[in-house]
Amino acid sequence: MTLIPVEYHGIHTTGPEQFTCVLLRWAEQNRILPVWISPLAAAELDSRDNGFTPRRPATVDLLLDVINRSTGGVTAINIISHFEGVFIASIVLADGQEIDARPSDALLLARALEMDVNVEEDVLNQASFFVADDIMEEYFGIRFDAADSTEDLSASGDAQADADFEEMMRSLGMSELDFETEEKDRDKDGEKEEDDQL
């Protein structure tokens, strides 16, 4: 099993249904792995990301306390499997034991511990998508430094990258028609502004 560290890029809502997902990035290949989670888990992750600390221990705090007292802590948090849109995570303890976990719980624990999440390479190959940097910035507000991006990884002229991106956008409830409609709306707004200025 080959585990690859991924970057955490926060909670996002997508599509007309406003489904919630965590975006993880395989930086080496400039590919995005969306992990769908419940709105409740998303709200808790988002509040933690924004510095909120509960007055009383939440479930993840209790779990972390028990792990630290009984085994000496966590050594790794991994996403190890994926089937029909469902991810399986594993929490590796200092004594070598592994605990089966939902990805939302594993991600909460990783954020609380400020640990990286690792993803099995086969899972990344099956479930991640190439997304151009300008699309990530436009639709998700995520901007990568030039040093973080690989210049020769581009959807331009790459049929597989185009297919990956199209499939990801469909899974997020968006289609090429949405882009065309948005572009036409922008053009109309620009024409209207020009008319107003005249």
Average pLDDT score: 82
Contiguous runs where pLDDT drops below 50 for at least 5 residues: 150-156
What portion of the residues fall into strands of 2 or more residues? 25-35%
Which strand order does the major sheet show? 6-5-4-7-1-2-3-8
Supply the number of structural domains: 1
Helix content: 40-55%
- Secondary-structure-derived class: alpha+beta
Please write the string of helix (H) and strand (E) elements. EEEHHEEEHEHEHHH
* Strand runs, count: 8
From the coordinates shown, what is the CATH architecture? Roll
Terminal CA distance reads 65 Å
Assign the CATH superfamily. Answer: Bifunctional nuclease domain
Quick recap of the structure?
Residues 172-198 are annotated as: Disordered. This protein has 198 residues and is an alpha+beta fold.
Describe this structure in words.
It is globular, with a radius of gyration of 20 Å. It has one domain (3-171): Bifunctional nuclease domain. The longest helix is centred in the last third of the chain and has 22 residues, at 176-197. The chain has an 8-stranded mixed beta sheet. Helices cover 43% and strands 27% of the residues. The protein starts with a strand and ends with a helix. Residues 150-156 have low confidence and may be disordered. It has 198 residues and is α+β, with helices and mostly antiparallel strands. Strand 4 and strand 5 form a beta hairpin. Helix 1 packs parallel to helix 3. It is built from 7 helices and 8 strands. Residues 172-198 are annotated as: Disordered. Residues 3-131 form the BFN domain. It holds the Pfam family BFN_dom.
